[in-house]
Specification:
The protein is of the alpha+beta class. The strands form five sheets. Strands 17, 18, 19, 20, 21, 22, 23, 24, 25 and 26 form a ten-stranded mixed β-sheet that branches. A hairpin with a 3-residue loop joins strand 11 and strand 12 (172-184).
Amino acid sequence: MFKTTWRGILAHKLRLFLATTAIVLGVSFVTGTLVIGDTINHTFDSLFQVINAKVDVEVRGASTGTVQGQAIHPPMPASVLSQVQNVSGVKEAFGSVSRSAVIVDRDGKAVINGGAPTFGLIWDPYADLSAATLRSGSAPSGADQVVIDAHTATTKNFKTGDKVTIVLPQQGPKTFTISGTTGFGDRDTIVGATISIFDAQSGPALLGAAGEFDTIELRAQPGVNADTLRASVNAALPKGVEAVTGQQVATEQSDAIKSNIGFLTTFLLVFALISVFVASFIILNTFSILVAQRTRELALLRCLGATRRQVMTSVLTEALITGIVASLLGIAVGMVIAIGLEALLGSIGLDLTGSTLQLSAGTIIVGLLVGTLVTVMASFLPARRATRVAPVEALRDSAPSIGTVSLGRILSGAGLLAGGIAMIVIGLFVISANQLAVTGAGALLTFVGVSVIAPMLVGPVVRVLGAPVTRFRGVPGKLATDNAQRQPRRTAATASALMIGVGLVSCFSVVTASLTDSVNKVIDRTVSADYILSPDNQGNGNALIPPDVATRLAADTKVGTVSPISGGTFHWGSDELFVQAVVPDTILRVADVSVQSGTPINQLGDGDVAISEDAAKNRALKIGDTVPMQFARPGVHQQRVSAVFARNPLLGDYLVTGSTWQSGNVEVFDILVLVKGAPGVAAEALRSSIKQDLSGFPNLKVENNAEYKATQAQNVNVALNFLTVLLVLAIIIALLGVVNTMALAIVERVRELGLVRALGMTRAQTRSMVRWETVLITVFGAILGCVVGIFFGISLVRAFASSGVDVLNVSVGRQIAYVIVAFFAGLLAAIWPARRASRVDVLQAITTE
């Protein structure tokens, strides 16, 4: 029986080719994502081992909490350095500082590599303790010299002796002389970061850390191990300061970074699994068609004595072999995908240049299992139908039959659809834990449910879509419409693969359009400033607006009001929440804050906190209650609730004064600066004056309300485009399924094609018939996708209403555009099947049985 199965594969290898390609693409995305994930882990593990290789013990502030999973260690007084230097076993001790410092290139633009950080450090003079090694020049000496990373020097054409402008965290722009360039181990930078290193004496003050150190690195004397030194140092440290080994630091740093960016691989893996899910529809459809076309062949096997079990084993073995071959090819292609993902991550600042792609045994096993299991599972139902082929079928004509939709299928599809919708509602509106998993499972069930009941929609929808085709294309159009309805399950399965990709894109478009409109509404309703200053590097959290900017603007006679907004995270027990910091005296002049109860915002004191109506409801807070706020520096700030204000996404749920925020944090940046002109100053004159004030800050944008809204919309559209690109592979797989279905249908209809050609249909009309049938299938799939996507999108927008997304925009123009794109994709997918159909030999076709 195995020999028969193998010969069957060889006999139908062309028919299996496109289905195999679908699995190859799906497995390659999964494999590529796993490879890039392993590569990221290996890169950071090795990098932080190199950085901390010479550090035996590190002294740091005890953690005051976490930000996005990464522990916060506040700085310590500089006096701690002299305390640890006197501990027995310490050979060398160096106090270090790490803050933000933005390098400006020769064109006056900020050097920011996507979301990579912009580090400002101080030079460690101990060669056997420092991780940085000079690539050229010498160490910095004096307050006017700096060493920069070799990667920035190379890419921005800087060399030793050149002048460079660096925007410091507190002092703003300052010009330095480049004394040298540096690297870390064999790398010219730390995964895309820009690095400026100042001398040990003036560096802390330049970086806004005068009188304190972030960490102290220690080198042990010969014969003293790290654990012994750590214990000795801990005994000499003041309260709130701790000592840990360099190995522990390396592990923590690597784990923290991997945890923070781990969502990237998870995110990519989700889209990879979507592609595999789409490919499973292609496999299911392919084997269904193959089984239908091989009815006589399977019946003859039954006549020759093959049992139902042997027939099923034959079909499943065929699927198993196909899955294994496709999976092996997918793993090989996955390495190419990994190279592309590496370049994609590099474009957003995660530079893995120099890293070796890691293909582990686990990745190979996962790739094989995913591709093989999906293929076998997708072929199970067709294999089961194959066992029901009776021997008498060998005596009947094998012409294609007219498909029907059973009541059981309708009921099961409705049940899956109802279950999926229920899970989406529960995930979005009922539960607070595991929301993503429940919602994702609900979406999966919804897609499957729609796919199951889709055959009953084929007839009415295709008749409506086919009406203009029949009217304007005549007989070929009518035959195309009839053919698309002939096998509703086949048409639905083919269209469902396309529905998934289009549905997700449609969903994202609804969410992004609604988000954009909601942001615009907030700006129109709450912002009365003439101009909004924001950082020109939204992905980089440590290169925002130095507080010196507001000071400079306040001194400008053309500026009437300057109101900076800062903020970040704080901890309330184990909860990590967000707070905004404002200047009470100025905020109401540039923004509308509607207080529902309590004192006006302009009376907010350093011991107060104003909360939104949502925070008051969710936390059961009222005027006079206390909110314990733990910031980066030690100590809990007991803030009294002084006001409850109406929902305002611009200001979030918690408001404190700028001085409260500054007293509790290490690095204090502004997120936005709202500016209003002095009386009588024209808008353009104000803009010109502001730009002149900020000539040394190339990483800042000056925008009026309309421009700011356009920028926010552009940022949202970039995210939509990125998601769409990730779904392109799934859509390509779906279109391959369309090509595959049409190609197999032509094989099935050889005799029928011969007859219509014999009755006078031309080759051009034959191509037209196949072309319009393909278009009807793709447009049907796109419409299904848009309907499902709009439902998902509306659900998400309603779920995010409490976060400020309170405007619904179904983006009708984009939905129509997706259907139009599907129309042209159908024309493209029809090229090969239509050409093949038109070349059918008439005499041979009408004699085929």
